[in-house]
Amino acid sequence: MEAFVSLASGLAVAIQPMNLLFALIGVLLGTAVGVLPGIGPALTVALLLPITFKLDPAGSIIMFAGIYYGGMYGGSTTAILINTPGESASMATALEGNLMAKSGRGGPALATAAIGSFVAGTFATFGLALLAPYLVDIAVSFGPEDYFALMCVAFVTVSATFGDSPVRGLTSLFIGLALGLVGIDILSGQSRLSFGVPELYDNIEVTTLAVGLFAVGEALYVASRRHHHEEKLEPVRGSLWMTKEDWKRSWKPWLRGTAYGFPIGALPAGGAEIPTFLSYATEKKLTKHPEDFGRGAIEGVAGPEAANNASAAGTLVPLLTLGLPTSATAAMMLAGFQQYGLNPGPLLFAEKPDLVWGLIASLFIANAMLLVLNLPLVGLWVRLLAIPQPWLYAGILVFATMGTIAANPSPVELIMLTAFGVLGFLMRRFDFPIAPVVVGLILGPVAESQLRRALSISLGDPMVLLQSPISATLLAIALIALMAPFVLKGLGRFKAVED
Amino acid sequence: MSSQNRRIDVAGLVIALLLLALAGLVWWDMTKLQLLSPYDVGPKAMPVIVSVGLAVLAIGNGIGALRGNLPDRESLDWTPIILILGGLACLIVLIAIGGGFMIGTAILFAATSAAFGRRAFLVDLLIGAVIAVVVYLLFAKLLTLSLPAGPLENLL
Hints:
The complex is a heterodimer. Chain A is an all-alpha fold.
């Protein structure tokens, strides 16, 4: 019940005209970038971070959340119409969705994706509102050693457990952790890995890293293999609306997709890939129209799209209650909080209830806006896909560099941006995941300070990590999650679905 | 995938060596730190963890490379990469010598555009300059952010 009271007061914040405007800008921007191939929600938030830091915190964060939700919607449009999913979360949607578009049922495919996303987003946001107070109550009793252990769990699950290759995922994570070391150590005042470069003393900017990896790295990668891929845009033919039959075949997959997406997103497991492919596999098994799978089955779009959006809301649970980002976008949102000196976690719920509940309430509003805006405007979104690729990427790079120098007007910052771009390019080429680097840079210093706090309370006795039952349990989970992929090499096997 | 052709992957070995070098760098940097408090594990603990982790992962990556476990890669087209990095380098140099961001941004736009196959460098240069002006006005006037100014920006 407490949740509903808080939610009502949050709604009062969310419907303030300025915040509504920020939510609207967020969902429009989010949808636009979700539609555009090559820019995901994480990059958009990263690009906007340096230019929003003089704006109102509540408004900006509401906007970032709108971008997150909008990006999830927009991604499905691209996946369905040109079969190049912008982010891995839309891969499952592309399988049946593009086939539907090819057979002239692009309209209903877009509709079931949008309505399914709305249904899932609404349920999952309710889940977030109901679950958050409980988690906050638990998190209040966490000591520094428990937080450290929790971060170990996040590190392992984000990088090792669910990727293609645990070794490559962990490598990404440790590169991020190494980058997190750069700068002056606050507790001792000594500089680490700075080599006398003044710009390195105050740590590596999360935005510079993210923009370099996502924007510059992606541009280099796409440009280097431009001749390998030709994209074909399927026109939306026929009715946009779903028939009675379509509704009948969609509503159960929506709910099942939500049931996969929200809990998996809420666990510090990271990513929407797992629930979307689980949902796809389930719908394929349960369908009454097995003959449609492989020719454009609406269930195969409805389920994964719902799972996709539900997991986005789920990701906000650990982010808001524990300050734990488990996806690249969540990591960028955490950076968004941090630039205003706000630290998500139980304290934020106590100190800034308006902001937190305002954010949660505005998620409902953003979700409704997306449903209303998306279907009628789908023609407009599709036209975005007609922007010539050279201008699109040139524009992204211009905006990326200008945002970077606006935040930090120094050539060194641009050199770092370029270096991270090259790193991002190499990581894409050799199939290293990008998100763990960002998570490592953001969470590494936090984990370190929690560890040192725990150890200084225990006068340097490392057993403190095992004496707290919470910490011991979490460390055990982290260890199991670390070993699991090596023991059962088949965990990544349902990825074979995509082939 | 690549599991059928198990031959040594040279690029993979280079990655492993780079990781090892990074581990060494973190370790070397750690040895220069001082412990100030006897009760704090101090600034050295995390670099040690990171360094050891990187070294272990370097070995893991090396084993993967020897087994040829890396994913298949498509052939690489170097021209666009050089164009984009060249554009970025121009921008960096121009800002470093106080030439303002606008010319550099226009060059970056045109270079990236050319990297993606456009054959209209001068037109793109102009478009890039217009975008730079718009973004400059947006940033400077609306969001009160400052961008490094050169002779051209001071005219606005």
